[in-house]
Amino acid sequence: MIVACSGTGSEEQQEEDFSTDVTFFTGQSGDEEYTGEAKPVVAGEAKGFETASVMRNKRASHGAVLLKDGRVFVVGGQGSGSQRGIIYTSAEVFDSKSGVWETAGDMEEHRHDLCVAVLLDGRVLISGGRGNLNMAIPTSEIYDADLGTWSSTGELFTERDYMPCTSLNDGRVLITGGEGRDYQDLSSAEVYDPAKGEWESVLDMSVTRARHTATLLDDGRVLITGGGKLDPPYEKSAEIFDPTTNTWTVVPEMFVGRADHSAVLLDDGRVLVVGGRGKKLTSEIYDPEMNTWEKTGSTIKPHAEASIIRLSTGKILITGGIGYGLRAAALYDPSTGVWEEVEDMNNDRYRHEMIRLKSDLILIIGGQGKGGVTAEVESFTP
User: Is residue 295 within 8 Å of residue 282, measured between CB atoms?
Assistant: First the structure.
């Protein structure tokens, strides 16, 4: 998957700490539901950010994917509430044409920092994450968007959270690393086979990783970069998973160690990696054909726990992040190797999600900022 901002010291201390004293929420009990004017998402007269319909619930560290029918599916995450925040079982679906958010039922488990991946048949796999008792969980569930129903499926071999998952070209889903139930980073990896409804263990990565990135390459392999805890040192290393053999190959390391950074596939098949904890401004590019890294332009503001996406033009949009970059947004032009700041978002955000709609507009969903967790949504016209 799947399918990412920077700050240390005093900046990171400004975050809300969700690590303890967690309360739980199911359906509509005990939490304020947010409603407002339905705002269809259409191209603005000018480029930039426009407010959209708010979600039914405030969410951060949630999952979001584009369904095959063009709607946006959002699930789980953390919200505001008593003490350190709610963990959701709920899901909701957004129709950009009507501007309406509708409930999509509830998972069996509360979870945030979870795996969410669309399967080839259009169903959605939800797996792992941090749940009950503030620990990583192994359970997996399937959401059928056509029927609007939930069902259980095979459990992970290892409980994990703070991990990416990746939809492979053969229909399986790869999940790598993360934090285990004992809060230690993992090197193990697993693959979900939807035909069997089961997870299968594959060979371990070369090192333990959490808060790392996983990017599907044009040839079907998956590039894994970086990882680490909230504080340094962060991993420089990178490796590639080959789904045809279920094996790993170590590739040259990045120029700097990164965790909670962002990575995205460029139109030419290379991978752009940017930001990360430690107020990093630097970016670098991996070329899978040459098996090399090269430095490229730096951002103006740091981005960790940000969100990144490729536009239809080939340019790259990054939004938000811990610390100075909360409202900041920037565009990267691969033809020049330069980042250019665009106008700020309307809301502070990190631990948010971005989805590219079929209309090519970008939807920015939820997240956390200086004012806490938000239900606010906005669109970006490239």
Answer: yes
Looking at residue 45, its pLDDT comes to 66
Predicted TM-score (pTM) of the model is: 0.90
Of the candidates 293, 298, 305, the residue with the CA atom closest to the CA atom of residue 254:
293
Q: Output the pLDDT for position 11.
A: 30
Name the residue ranges covered by the structural domains of the chain. Answer: 12-381
- CATH class of the 12-381 domain in this structure: mainly beta
The residues of the chain scoring below 70 in pLDDT are 1-36, 44-45, 81-84
Asked if 50 and 381 touch (Cβ cutoff 8 Å), the reply is: yes
Tokens of 291: 């098996």
